[in-house]
Amino acid sequence: MSWNRKDLITIEELSKDEIEKIFAVATAFKKTFGRSVKKIPALRGKTIVNLFLEPSTRTRMGFEVAAKRLSADVISLDMNSSSTTKGETLRDTAQNVQALKADMIIIRHSAPGSPLYLSKILDIPVVNAGDGAHEHPTQALLDCFTLLEKLGNLKGKKITILGDIIFSRVARSNIWAMTKLGAEVTLVGPSTLVPHWFTNFGVKVSHDLQASLEDADAVMLLRIQHERQTSSHFPSIGEYTNMFGLNKTRASWLKPNAIIMHPGPINRGVEIDSDLADSEQSVILDQVTNGIAVRMAVLYLCSGGSPEAVIKHSN
Ligand code: CP
Questions:
Q1: I want to staple 43 with a disulfide (CB 3.0 to 4.6 A). Which of 72, 118, 186, 254 is the partner?
Q2: Range of the domain at 247
Q3: Do both 118 and 164 map to the same domain?
């Protein structure tokens, strides 16, 4: 039951066993959520630096809440207030964070590979909070943790991911996580955003929205990631919504107990109707809450915490 990684950079590199270890620890930590005093002393005396060089609401706050629940001290640095605006390199910024005796860096960056790069030059643990269109490992972990809570098991479960797949780090990390856990994943959207070569990752690619929704135990919507698109991939947002947005008619194709997911931020009225985002089938806010438990587990394990100790203590 040991954990041997200093860093969390990708889901691709994790085994099913490691993913399940994170979930076991996250389940133990989630038991603290109902307490009046939610803090536990697991990372007391540690300093964690949140280095967010791209915008974020859920991930940045999720990591901050998780670190504080573990009693760590948290320092957050964003793009606008850091000396990267004065020309400092990522390498120098990170080495200064280490020289300031931080115990861990959580990094979000628009450049794919930047967390891996830091993990190779720093002695302290590095956690990837999203690197370009490459990976967003804790998002996939919290998504799969939520799926397991709602569906019980992922083996043979059918998950449809609908939207801008090609520019999505959430899709890539989820493809790795869901398939490792035994789910059957179908990617749907316009062919410009869902190219056929994704089948190399062991998933289906479909442009038949109705069939993909009828078959699904869960559907995950993704927003159009304009910040990574350098050219037009469809005529207009209105046409995308008309063709692929989840509206009342399309939601009626889902099984009654199928769940609706979205990593956020939601663009209401574009990839999903507002009413559906707030409906009984939506687990979007459960995903956010589960992000605390999963990130507590990742911070704890990458800091050298013992999975057995926390699981035994929670029973
Ligand atoms: N899901 C997600 O990464 O959201 P933020 O960009 O708000 O962190």
A1: 72
A2: 137-287
A3: no
Provide the 3-class DSSP secondary structure of residue 35.
Answer: coil
Residue nearest to atom 3 of ligand 1 (CA): 59
The pairing of beta strand 104-109 with beta strand 218-221: unpaired
Would you call 121 helix, strand, or coil by DSSP? helix
Contact 261, 223 (CB under 8 A): no
Please state whether the predicted TM-score (pTM) of the whole model is above 0.85. Answer: yes
Residue 314 has pLDDT above 90, yes or no: no
Tens of pLDDT, residues 2-51:
899 999 999 999 999 999 999 999 999 999 999 999 999 999 999 999 99
Q: Which atom of ligand 1 is closest in space to residue 129's alpha carbon? A: 3
Whether ligand 1 lies within 6 angstroms of the CB of 139 is answered as: yes
The answer, yes or no, to whether any atom of ligand 1 lies below 6 A from the CB of 291, is no
Q: What are phi and psi of 85, to 5 degrees?
A: -70, -15
Q: What is the CATH number of the domain that holds 172?
A: 3.40.50.1370
Is 179 close to ligand 1, i.e. is its CB under 6 Å away? no
Best residue for ligand 1 mutational test, from 52, 53, 56, 262 (most atoms within 8 Å of Cβ)? 56
Structure tokens of 104? Answer: 């861990």
| pLDDT score, position 230 | 65
Tell me: do 142 and 281 sit in the same domain: yes
Contact 284, 277 (CB under 8 A): yes
Q: Is 271 found in the same domain as 193?
A: yes
Q: Quick one: 69 and 154 in the same domain? A: no
What mean pLDDT comes out for the span 109-138? Answer: 98
| CA of 55 relative to ligand 1 center, distance in Å | 8
Asked if the structure places residue 180 within a domain, the reply is yes
